[in-house]
Each structure stands twice: as C-alpha cells, then as structure tokens.
C-alpha cells in the first residue's frame, strides 16, 4: 500500500491544534508533530512576536511546497482585557469590607482604564479579580465610581485580571496590537483568527467586515470564555466559522462544577449548526512537566471526542512543555483508540446555508455508511462542502479535493477531512480526472469504492449539488458474481486470477485452489461454477469484456456488482 495512503489511515479523524512556542520552534520537531497528527499551529499573540508569525508562515508554505502537507495557522488575538489598577503594588482585600472601583482618573481604591465600565455595572453584579480568587459584589452603582463588597480575603495585585460575569462591557473586540496582527494575517494568508472574549455576534460580524475590507479571506474562531458569550451562543454560532471552548477563562466566569456541562451545551449548539468545534485548555496539563498524562486527563480527552469535537488543542504542553512530541502522540493514540470503538456520532439538525447542500451532505453520509465506502471525495472550491460532509460524521475518511492551497490547509481542521490539492486545475475537470489523480498519488487504490460529492456534472467545483458512487480505476469487464471482493494479477500462476473460458478449467482433475478467483467469459458450465463456489473462490461468469486485459495486469473484482476494474 502506498505510504501516503497508509499515512491517512494511521491518522486520527479528530484533529490536533498545537500552540507554537520555544518548546516546538525547531522545524524538525514541528515536522514530527505533523507526522504524529498536528494539523494546525496556534500562535498566542499575548506571548509571541510578529517574527514568530513569519516563521510559522514560512514553515507552513515549505510543508505545502515540498511535502504536500497542508497545515493551517491560527492567530489567537489577545483581545480586550480588564485589569485592576492600584495606587500601590498590592491591596489587601478583607471579607465583608467595602472598596471603591472607579474610572482611571477618579479617586478610588481600585481603578479601571477601559471607558464606561463602571456605569455598565448594576447592583448585585459580581466583579472578580485574580482569575476569580477574589470575589466581590456591586453594592452601590455610579457613573464614575461604584462600591464593592468582598466575600473573601485575598491579596489583589496591581494589573491583576478582572472579570464581570454576565454583564456586557462595551470595550471593543480588538485592541491596537490585535489590529496589527490582523493586518499581517491577511497579508500572509493565515487560515484562522481566534477572537478572545467574544460577547455577541455583532463583534464577529464587525471583524468579518474588517477582513473583507482588507481583501482577506480568513475564517474566525469565536472563543467561548465568558458568561456573556454563553448567553448569546445561538447568535454566535450562526456568525462564526468555528467555535473554541476555552475552559480556562470560562471556569473563572462560572463555578468550576458547571464548566463540563457548559462545554457539552456549547458543543451541541455549534454542531447542530454544522460549525467546527475545538476543545481547549488543560487537556494534558500535567505533561508540561511529566512524560505521561493522568488518567483523568485521558478521560477528559475521551469525553471531548465522544461529545463530537472536531479538534483538540494543546497550549502550554507544546509551547513551553518538556514533552511536546509525547503530548501530541498521547492525543493521537487516544483519538485513534476511541474512534475505533465508537462510530455513532450525532448529525447536525440544520445548516445556516442551502437546504440542497444540507441534503446532499446527509445523503453522502448515508451512502458511504451503507456501502462501507473506502473514502468520500468532496470536491470543494471554498471548503464548505468538506465542512458540511464532515459535520455529518460519516464512518469513511473524507478526501477534500480542492484547487486552493489555502482551502486545503483550512479544511484540515475539520474532523475526518484530509486535504488534496489538484495540480494544474482546469474548470472542465471531470470526476474521472479527479479519481485518476488520487490513484496516481496513492491517495486511493484501484478498485476502491468511492462516494463523490460535487457540484454540477460539468462544473465539479461549483456548489454542492450531487452525490455518486464510483469505483476507482477503469471498468474492463462485467458479469454475474459470487464470492467476495478481491484483487490480483491476471493469469500469473498460483494465487493469481484466472481469466478465460470454462473449457480450460472444466477437467475433473483441475485444482481450483490454484487460483484465487475466476473471470469466466462465454457461456458458463454449471458444474464448473458449482466447483468454484464449493472451493470458496470468487467468480465472475457470463463475463462481457469491455476493455483489453492482458496477462499480468492488476485487476480488482467488485463482487457486489459484478464489475472488474483495472
């Protein structure tokens, strides 16, 4: 079997996102991470430089150019943050005591630099500091200064994180530094931008518009990490291109025991609309310093896969951890094991797009599962066909065939999708041309049954309008069949496939175990067919030869339909 083909079969359908950092910045390590299953590299702009983004772009392009490996880049923007500004380095917070929170120029115990935050607060709102370690409640509202009462003791540090769960804060989705990274990402054809602290769909629509005005085509990943985003999840999933369940900050904004149920709720909402899902934060956190994960971490990973995630994300494990390769391999091995046991994943209930494309994607899944197709081939110009078919969670792996390197890299984040770029693409390319290219590069093998979804018969890459069942290779003969599917060489000695008329093998002393299968031309002799059947061999009889077949040719017998392919 071709090594490229073997590579696909060994890779998990669940994709792996690795965060770029000092621990994995060397090209040889990154290449091995790809071989272990990484399909996307994330750059956390809160801890990275533009030079590092350029390094990632160079590596991505090199992999596509030299090895036909299409990995994507996700630029994770820092986004808006609320920080507590103090008059000194620290402030001792005591339970039951009152403190003032004011805009930066006001006289108060704690200041906030973002405009209009204080007047947005209402009596009873929670205000959290230091990643939720210090919890206070608004007891008196005000336009510029409000009063807080603490329920715990703690030490508040200057510039410490601040969260206001469930309250919309008009602070903008992008900061100036984010805009610079966004501009560079458009220039470098980055595949994904992750938006931090999303509160509603309007913010996503705004960034989509900004990218469009820059002439870009970047997909957005909405990070669900605030209670406000949870409350607006219905609108967010209809506006975004992908969802990330960012459990770290989500666990600050709500009680930690609610996070797992919230994760399942977010994933269900996203998947019901056919939107790809990434589960992130502390997947294998112990592997930052340990060579092996905890049992609880493996259970967490397993449950994320069973809950229908498209991708799993590693953060510190690959950015600064001591065992980045081992962490990736743990995710890959766990994914492959879980996928080998469980296949009945839930389908989306609706799409925001066309009902025709929804129906074609659903038909593709049904067909491929019913006939045990070796692969699904999704002809896609922009990636939407591959995304929709992926969301149906078919058992077969999906080959996303596209003329675009950018689309190939982007679709590599979708569950079960493996990209293939058509070289020297022409608009009048046919399904036969596509299958021949895939066979030529070893992505599929002659005789394999393939479900193909595409656009119009004369324009395969125009929309999603049809689905068909095909077998790779050239049809050379057809007849009546018995036995199992089999491949081999024609008339090449013991263990090969006999092809000829009945008379040559009708002798009572003929040893039917000499051949693995029989293709019998002309009128069959019933006793010969019975002997072949008794020997447990495959047979095509009353065969009509459609194309020349020579001794030594490789063929595949599809006994389900009585076709022979070469």
Automatic annotation (TrEMBL):
EC number: 2.7.1.40
Residues covered by the Pyruvate kinase C-terminal domain: 360-459
Coiled coil: none
Pfam family, one: PK_C
Class of the enzyme per the UniProt entry, highest EC level: transferase
Pathway assigned in UniProt: Carbohydrate degradation; glycolysis; pyruvate from D-glyceraldehyde 3-phosphate: step 5/5
Alphabetical keyword list: ATP-binding, Glycolysis, Kinase, Magnesium, Metal-binding, Nucleotide-binding, Pyruvate, Transferase
Pyruvate kinase barrel domain sequence ranges: 13-328
GO molecular function: ATP binding; kinase activity; magnesium ion binding; potassium ion binding; pyruvate kinase activity
Catalysed reactions, semicolon-separated: pyruvate + ATP = phosphoenolpyruvate + ADP + H(+)
Keyword Magnesium: yes
Family the entry assigns: Belongs to the pyruvate kinase family.
Protein name: Pyruvate kinase
